[in-house]
Structure formats: C-alpha cells, structure tokens
Write a sequence for this structure.
C-alpha cells in the first residue's frame, strides 16, 4: 500500500496545528505535531536537569526517550490538538508552557538533536498516511510528500492568535510581549544554522490572514483529494 503524506511548514502561530488537526480528522490521517517533539526534548532536559546547550547530553536523552503522538480519544477531548506521550506519560499540556516553548526553541538550534528527531519523525510516517507540521517538514523530514504547504499569516494576526491562546490558558501576558516574542522566535527559526525555515519551490503558499480556518481546511482537503484521485488513476 502506498502512503499519502501532507507536509506543512510555516512560522509561529500561522494556524498549522488547528488546520492540520481538522484536515487529519476529515481525511482519517494521523496528525503529527513535530514541534511537540522539540517541546518534549526541552521537558526531558528540565526533568533530568540537563543544560539545554549540552548537545551530547541532550542527544542521549532524546535517543533513550519514547515519544508518541496520537489523535485524542473521546475522553481526552479537552481542546488539545494531539495527545503527546513521553515515556508513556501524558504530557500534552505540560509541554505548552512559555518556559518549555523557550527551551524548545533553543534545543531546535542543535544539529545533532534535529537529526535524531527527524529520524523519529520519518519512522512515524513510514507506514501510514500523515499530515505532519513543523519548520523543516517539506524539505528535510518528508521531501517526497505528495502535498507540500507553507502556511503563513501577517505578524500581527499571528501575535493576536497566540495572545488569545495564552489568555484562554490563563497565562496573563501583555500583547506587546507576545508580539515581540513572536518576531524573535521567527528570527531564530529563519536564521538557525541547522536547517532554517524556508519555502521550497514546490510548496503551495497559503496565507491565512484573511481566511477563516474552515475555509483553509476545505481548500487543503479538496487539493489532497484531487492529488490522491490522480495518483490512483495513474497507478491503475
Ligand atoms: O511549533 P512549536 O511552537 O510547537 O515548536 C516548538 C519549537 O520547535 C519552535 O521553536 C520551533 C521548533 N521546531 C523546529 O525547529 N522544527 C520543527 N519541525 C518543529 C518545531
């Protein structure tokens, strides 16, 4: 059986998670949030008191860890987009704090850590249909994906979305701080020595600034179905 892969890259808070979750549900695919794996890495460092800059120690932790993701079960539907298990423990919410976000952004600059996580991501996708999102999926993790998307939105809309998300989680942060942090995180993603965020030439660039999420989901589902139908007719 051949598998179908949708790869999505894009900057912070472009809507990648929400869109991917909904597309995954409509197509019956597994949604893989690769950012969660960088977040789990930061959590591992915190739990084991390992310095985020100590690359070989961080790599050893990641290699030994079991990182799993699954679509949330009925009982787990508490507005999470995915259920994240680290060595069997449900850490879906533990990895969403601002402290872990900052740590994830730092470990994501380590070349060897990226290598190990990319391998884990490729293993997950090897035998199943996935919609996988992150910052290097279209060109590093799944360069052969049948559908590649670069999802983006204006800086202010992305900062507004993040601000709202944090408020809903009870984190009281000023909008100006969220805006500054969003821009700083983009800078780090785009200037990172190891695999900087980029737009590949065959990516479909989708700007979500003026679109409702539902509209974006519908566009992606339609496009995926067309590609799937074409590849089936060519193979038969
Ligand atoms: O998407 P996110 O905020 O959960 O990602 C957490 C961090 O991991 C963020 O700093 C970007 C980084 N990341 C990455 O470098 N490569 C990926 N494929 C996914 C996330």
């Amino acid at each position: 059986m051949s598998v179908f892969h949708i790869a999505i890259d894009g900057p912070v808070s472009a809507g990648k998670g929400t869109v991917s979750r909904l597309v995954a549900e409509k197509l019956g695919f597994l949604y893989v949030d690769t950012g969660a794996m960088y977040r789990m890495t930061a959590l591992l460092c915190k739990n084991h008191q390992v310095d985020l800059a100590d690359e070989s120690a961080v790599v050893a932790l990641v290699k030994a860890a079991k990182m799993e993701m699954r679509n949330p079960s009925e009982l787990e539907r508490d507005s999470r987009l995915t259920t994240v298990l680290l060595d069997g423990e449900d850490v879906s919410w533990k990895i969403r704090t601002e402290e872990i976000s900052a740590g994830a952004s730092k470990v994501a600059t380590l070349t060897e850590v990226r290598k190990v996580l990319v391998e884990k991501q490729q293993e997950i996708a090897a035998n199943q249909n996935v919609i996988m999102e992150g910052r290097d999926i279209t060109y590093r993790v799944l360069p052969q994906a049948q559908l590649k998307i670069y999802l983006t939105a204006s800086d202010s809309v992305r900062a507004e979305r993040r601000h709202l998300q944090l408020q809903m989680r009870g984190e009281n942060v000023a909008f100006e701080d969220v805006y500054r942090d969003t821009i700083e995180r983009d800078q780090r993603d785009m200037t990172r020595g190891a695999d900087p965020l980029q737009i590949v030439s065959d990516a479909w660039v989708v700007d979500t600034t003026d679109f409702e999420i539902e509209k974006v989901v519908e566009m992606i589902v339609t496009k995926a179905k067309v590609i799937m139908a074409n590849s089936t007719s060519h193979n038969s």
Observations:
- Strands lie at 5-9, 30-33, 67-70, 83-86, 89-90, 130-134, 147-152, 204-207.
